[in-house]
């Protein structure tokens, strides 16, 4: 074979090899098919969002302490927190003045996300109306007030029923036939309680008379002490109060006289002086109000609850109270519960002798809400004042 032919054959072989190499380089791998998506039913469902808690705030006029008006409200707050558990979140601000500060505090409560706000004293009425008008998505509840709005309603307790029951015991226990009352501010609520206390005492002891000293404040232990001392020095041997501290009972204890707890059980403050405590239980109403908000059944209106609804009671009666007085107390409780006893039933006269309620006439709530006179047996005149 000639060199020329050999070269031709080698060139042909090299060309064939090059073509084969190019063919191999141009070949692509087919990727494996992606797995089919799982059926929708097999996929894990997204977790449901946690239900949002109802935030509930309380504005208190006094310190919580361990007795009295604010203490009773805070006991109820704790009770509803336990009742509703993680459905609600409660908070409170104590010692909120009945002034422009109340509006500031409530606006702050709204800013913190509270959707139900309780104002627990009469002096919050105008501030609450202002804040409610600006926040229609928030519900407001005002204790002892009388003005409402589409998102503000009022509630109260018939404290005069507790005062009447205290009077039954006072009239049975007094030796001087002179009772004393330390009053906060002279408004219908407080005047009604003084009168009811006197009517209760007169129901068992017609000789009773009642003296009143006003302190012009809801919580002022020094003034309350001074007023109680003055009443005792003036001949009163059994005292009641419409103030928020335990100072009156403690003063009676020190001076060897008798007295009552008010708004909560105060027996521990003066065990020897204590004759019993007229208490308020706000829990039933707070359960209803919060339940209404949670169930979207809340609506404006007015409520006034007493013994019948479980809001008022008289507890911790002293051991030395005569059995006859204790039995009469139980009859009064039963009558208030079933509606057969009407405290404000005529004939009733004021302390000038003028007939206020005719024989067998029964006062309605409008009449009770506007009482501005003393009944027969209460000394002095009602001064002006503001309502709680």
From TrEMBL:
The keyword Signal applies. Residues 54-332 form the ABC transporter substrate-binding protein PnrA-like domain. PANTHER family: ABC TRANSPORTER SUBSTRATE-BINDING PROTEIN. InterPro entries: ABC-Purine-Binding, PnrA-like, TAT_signal. Residues 1-23 form the signal peptide. It holds the Pfam family Bmp. This is BMP family ABC transporter substrate-binding protein. Keywords: Signal. The keyword tRNA processing does not apply. GO terms for cellular component: plasma membrane. It comes from Ramlibacter cellulosilyticus. It comes from the Bacteria.
